[in-house]
Amino acid sequence: MKPEARRNVDTVLLPGARTGRDPARSIKRGPSRLPPGVVAATQRERLLDGLVLTVAQHGYQRATVSDICRAAGVTRPVFYALFTGKEDAFLAAHRHGTAVVIRRMAAAFAAAPDWCTGIREALRAMLGLLAGVPAFAAMAVIELDAVGPAGRRERDQLLTRFRAFFAEVPELPGGVAAEAMVDAVVGGVYCALQRRIDAGRTDQLPDLLPTLSLFCLAPFLGPAEAARRLAVDPVP
């Protein structure tokens, strides 16, 4: 599968990429009814899509279970058969979507010939996916704080997974701890995403690729060497 086709497939898999009320996703009644497990999986997917679109539009605090069910075309009893409440559904959507993003980043990273190129290609994959589904980006990055302690724990776990891409960083001079530097870099990347998404410029996320690539490599290689590896001009 070509990289572009793979990105398109992954974008569709992100919650919020499709409307839950799409007639093509309706479950027909009658003798040919699908097996219960298939029905439940379809309803769950529709509810995750409905939640992401609703939260992106109204915010987590204002979104209600009824709003989510309406967006998904699913009843409240079905919602509560699948989730314990709004927070549970939100976290399920977040985990599912971020797993798609991490998987695509990992594939891009693994396909690259070296660590520097791998970081850039992993960033490219992430930025492209988030730009392709703005509702998921808003829900996963901006509204996560509104969930409270559970949301903060989810973000911490996500950032820990991002740190795995820096397992090959070179030793830093002057006794600077590589782990602390990686934490600073990962946090900085997340902050840059957050600012652009919060400003309603999610479609412009791919424009951050040169800056974020250099930002990720410069602390470990030096600005000039990082720029050389990335074939870009160093930041003055």
From TrEMBL:
Region Disordered, residue ranges: 15-34
Pfam families per record: TetR_N
Cited PROSITE patterns: HTH_TETR_2
Region forming the signal peptide: none
UniProt-listed InterPro entries: Homeodomain-like_sf (IPR009057), HTH-type_TetR-like_transc_reg (IPR050109), HTH_TetR (IPR001647)
Domain of life: Bacteria
TM helices/strands, residue ranges: none
Keyword DNA-binding in annotation: yes
Keywords in alphabetical order: DNA-binding, Transcription, Transcription regulation
Gene3D superfamilies, per the entry: Tetracycline Repressor, domain 2
Domain HTH tetR-type: 41-101
DNA-binding region per Swiss-Prot/TrEMBL record: 64-83
Protein's recorded name: HTH tetR-type domain-containing protein
Species annotation: Kitasatospora putterlickiae
Species lineage: Bacteria, Bacillati, Actinomycetota, Actinomycetes, Kitasatosporales
